[in-house]
Design a protein that fits this description.
Blueprint lengths: L2 H14 L6 E4 L10 H8 L5 E5 L1 E2 L5 E2 L5 H12 L2 E2 L5 E7 L2 E8 L10 E2 L3 H4 L2 E4 L2 E4 L2 H12 L18 H14 L8 H7 L3 E2 L2 E2 L1 H7 L12 E6 L9 E7 L3 H14 L3 E5 L6 E5 L3 H14 L11 E5 L3 E7 L21 H11 L8 H10 L6 E4 L3 E7 L41 H9 L6 H8 L4 H14 L3 E3 L12 E3 L9
Parallel strand pairs: 1-2, 13-17
Antiparallel strand pairs: 2-7, 3-4, 5-8, 6-7, 9-10, 11-12, 13-14, 15-16, 17-18, 18-20, 19-20, 21-22
Organism: Hominibacterium faecale
Protein name: DNA binding domain-containing protein
Pfam families: Fic-like_C, HATPase_c_4, SLFN_AlbA_2
Length: 511
């Protein structure tokens, strides 16, 4: 980076008073930090890489303290980089800042086929990390497997299920699929039945594949109990199990589950009836466009991870007062990122299953793909769907109220919150817009609750959300940015004593 860019980065760090997804701050005033391995691994294992900044002291609110010796620091950091597998090639920059010398080491992200980058002294299993906000977390067994599966092009939908037999497959469904494929590829009719099954991924060495069971078995959950859908309707906005007012376990082959899940959602949606003033025709409009919901459910079933690490986790469909969420086990596959969704052709995690599902459900799905889902939401005057690529799952969220400030948020690997400078929603809504409390009960109730200053833990308990980090990112920060909430200690935003109160109500005397 340029010297001016390093100075600008240091200013942003001091202003924000925190590390970030792409930045790690180390003092290095007395010596080079001894153990940078986790950060080197975490930065290398994300596409954007990351930057180590030396010479700011996090313990004194990121005061510029300088580094002990820029050249020796570079040598020692490089020595640690060479302890990584594959070796990390850092790019160094030094600059004068607030009367002292600070340094930066830019760590490039390595190619997906080379990941994970890990510290050789700890080994691949314990020495591999990923970045989560300002923290470095050890990779799970599933995340390590996901890298391995992509590198070796392993497709779990094609794995043979040796304890099953062809007798478990519905002969009519299977015959219809084979007939359709033989019409598309006339050469298939020249092969015998066993060869056809192998070429169409119905079997592997005579045993049915997982894709075939999920597509043609009457009850695949008899072999894989959790490869279904857990659908639930929640009474409010939180995720606590006590809030569930309706629950259904949806099972069967994928084509049946898609239909049943879509019907469950439609049955639990509100329907608004309008009369066209020009034609007098009646129009029924559900909370969400059912075609978009059906497509998202199909995608969740077809593109989920079917490895042994996730086969005990069902797809979830959750209906809340303000949103509908679809959770699919496994992260985005391969090189695909949130920003690329709907713009580039994805690599397929489950190619055999995708072909079988398209053959069975193609005519019934009126639209196809994420662009069509977005168009459906737009036609309903609703916010764009939110896509979140979490550590162990991919989540699609539909919001049913365009006025909700919480509907403005997007996944953390996109621009994380609505601001004047980065409006990712495509809607011209100012940050200080006057959102009526009645349009979003969660926001209104939360602001009322915070008329007395509250801690993050108190807010999380109030919202019935278990993860404080999630509450901070998806509830507190958007309301701080929009001016609805304020901090009791704005000069120390990371303080453990920090509390949040509704702007205009003022902090309570005891604070």
């Amino acid at each position: 980076m340029l010297i001016a860019e390093l100075v600008e980065l240091a200013e942003r760090i001091q202003k924000g008073q925190t590390d970030a997804q792409l930045v790690e701050v180390k003092s290095a005033r007395e010596d080079c930090p001894k153990k940078l391995y986790n950060t080197l691994s975490a930065f290398s294992n994300q596409d954007q890489g990351g930057t180590l900044v030396f010479g700011l002291n996090e313990k004194t609110w990121f005061k510029a303290v300088g580094v002990y010796d820029p050249l020796d620091l570079q040598k020692n950091v490089t020595d640690q980089c060479n302890q990584m597998e594959p070796p990390v090639e850092a790019v160094f920059t030094a600059a004068e800042y607030q009367g002292v010398t600070i340094c930066a080491a830019e760590i490039p992200g390595i190619d997906l086929a080379q990941r994970p980058c890990y510290y050789k002294g700890a080994g691949r299993t314990k020495g591999s990390c990923l970045r989560a906000g300002g923290a470095n977390l050890q990779l799970t067994d599933y995340e390590l497997y996901a890298y391995e599966a992509y590198r070796k092009q392993l497709h779990d939908d094609e794995r043979p299920v040796t304890r099953a037999s062809l007798k478990l497959l519905d002969p009519d469904r299977l015959a219809a699929y084979i007939s359709k494929k033989e019409k598309q590829k006339s050469q298939l009719s020249l092969a015998d039945e066993e060869q056809v099954y192998e070429m169409l991924n119905v079997t592997r060495s005579g045993a049915p594949t997982l894709a075939a069971l999920m597509s043609f078995c009457v009850y695949p959950q008899g072999l894989f109990p959790q490869l279904g859908i857990e659908a639930a309707v929640m009474s409010g906005y939180g995720t606590g199990s006590a809030n569930a007012v309706d629950h259904k376990r949806i099972e069967g082959p994928i084509s049946d589950m898609v239909k049943e899940a879509a019907e469950f959602c439609k049955r639990n949606m509100k329907t608004k009836i309008t009369i066209d003033p020009d034609t007098g025709m009646r129009e029924d409009k559900t909370d969400y466009p059912i075609n978009a919901v059906r497509e998202a459910i199909l995608n969740a079933l077809v593109h989920r991870d079917y490895s042994a690490h996730t086969e005990k986790i069902p797809v979830q469909v959750l209906i809340f007062a303000d949103r509908l969420e679809i959770h699919s086990p496994g992260t985005l596959y391969g090189r695909m990122t949130i920003d690329q969704l709907g713009k580039t052709r994805p690599e397929l995690r489950n190619p055999a299953l995708a072909v079988m599902a398209e053959s069975q459900l193609g005519p019934e799905i009126r639209y196809s793909g994420i662009p069509a889902i977005r168009e459906e939401m737009k036609a309903y005057d609703l916010p764009d769907p939110v896509f979140e690529n979490r550590r162990d799952e991919f989540v699609v969220i539909f919001y049913n109220d365009i006025r909700s400030p919480l509907a403005m948020r997007v996944a953390e690997d996109q621009a994380p919150y609505y601001t004047d400078a980065a409006n990712t929603t495509g809607m011209d809504i100012p940050a200080d817009a006057d959102f009526p409390a009645c349009s979003d009960k969660t926001t209104g109730d939360l602001l009322e609750f915070c008329r007395k200053p509250r801690t993050r833990k108190e807010i999380a308990d109030f919202l019935d959300v278990k993860t404080i980090f999630y509450v901070s990112g998806h509830y507190i920060k958007p309301l701080l940015d929009s001016g609805y909430l304020a901090m009791t200690m704005p000069e120390k935003p990371k303080s453990k004593l920090q509390r949040y109160y509704t702007a205009g109500s003022g902090p309570a005397p005891e604070c």
